[in-house]
Model the fold of this input.
Amino acid sequence: MITVVGTFLWYNDKFLIIQRHPDKPQGGTWGLPAGKVDAEESDENAAMRELQEETGVVVSSVKYMSEIDYQHEGQKPIRFVSFESRVEQEPDITIRPEEILSYRWITAKECFELQNTIPGFQEVLIACKYIVV
Done:
């Protein structure tokens, strides 16, 4: 099983989502700053590393929120582990245009209703208890 981590970076009452480059897996969809955990790396460190790599934001800690196991047709099973981090001031976001098209701050309700999110994003919002159904 492959472990993928993602971080909800909260500022005020919104969190950051990024839009994947069309040439990347799930291209054009919106999701969290996320990625695979490297060998010998903790989930927490991977979440902080991916957040920095994809947005330029450095945080000193993340809080575990949830994990969901799933498998897309024809792919290996994935465990998606969610974390959150909160910042007091709006951070400068630096994206790599070869990987990410855009970013935005969004409420959990707005994100839940967004049509072009990465598969399983609504389930992650529910598992983290950001959305109650």
Remarks:
- The chain has a mean pLDDT of 94.
- Helices lie at 43-55, 108-113, 121-127.
- The two ends are 29 Å apart (CA to CA).
- The beta strands are 2-11, 14-20, 30-31, 34-36, 63-70, 78-87, 100-106.
